[in-house]
Amino acid sequence: MKQLRHQLKLATMLGLLVAGLAGAFQNALALDAAGEGRRAWLKYNCYGCHGMRAGGGMGPAIAGEGEEIYEAVTYGKGEGMPAYGTLVNGTEIANMATYLRSINSSGEPMFLHWWELVPTQ
Fold first, then answer.
1. Distance between alpha carbon 25 and the CA centroid of its chain, in Å?
2. Which residue, 60, 65, 76, 109, could crosslink 83 as a Cys pair with Cβ 3.0–4.6 Å?
3. Nearest-CA neighbor of 35 among 88, 100, 89?
4. How far are the Cα atoms of 13, 35, 47, 48, 110 from residue 62, in angstroms, in the given order?
5. Where is the Cytochrome c domain (predicted)?
6. Domain limits at 12?
7. Is 100 in the same domain as 59?
8. Are 36 and 95 within 8 A, CB to CB?
9. Residue-by-residue pLDDT tens, the chain, 121 positions
10. Cα–chain center distance at 22
11. The 3-state secondary structure of 36-97, one letter per residue
C-alpha cells in the first residue's frame, strides 16, 4: 500500500511536470503581434480583397497602415468593406495593424498555414 501511494505521488508529479513543460514550450513558440496579425489576415480572408501582402486588389492597398484600420474593420467602409466588428476583436485588429506595418520589413511573417499553432509554412 505504501509503495502504491509512492508510485501515485510520482506519477502525479511527473504528470504535472510534463504539463508544465508543454505549456512553457507552447508559450515559447507563440507568434509575436505581427505573426498573430498575419494569422488574422489570412483567417478572415482580408487578402481576398486587399492582396496577399496588402498591396491592393479589388480593395485598396493598405500595406503600412496602422491603427487607422480599426474603424474600417469594425464598422465597414463605403460599399466595399464589410463590417467585421462582430467577428474580430480589438486585439486581432491591433495585431493586423502590426502585421500591415511589418510588410516589406525583415520582420514580416510570410506563413500561409494560419490554422497551425506555430505555422510551418
1. 17
2. 76
3. 100
4. 51, 17, 11, 13, 17
5. 32-104
6. 1-30
7. yes
8. yes
9. 667 665 666 656 565 555 544 444 444 457 999 999 999 999 999 999 999 999 999 999 999 998 889 999 999 998 899 999 999 999 999 999 999 999 999 999 999 898 888 787 7
10. 20
11. HHHHHHHHCCCHHHHCCCCCCCCCCCCCCCCCCHHHHHHHCECCCECCCCCCCCHHHHHHHH
| 62 vs 81: CA distance, rounded Å | 13
Residue 121 lies in a domain: no
Q: Is residue 120 part of a domain?
A: no
Helix (H) or strand (E) holding 19: helix 2-28
Same domain, residue pair 64 and 14: no
- Shortest CA distance to 32 belongs to which of 112, 104, 95? 95
46 residue type, one letter: C
Considering the entire predicted model, what is its pTM?
0.73
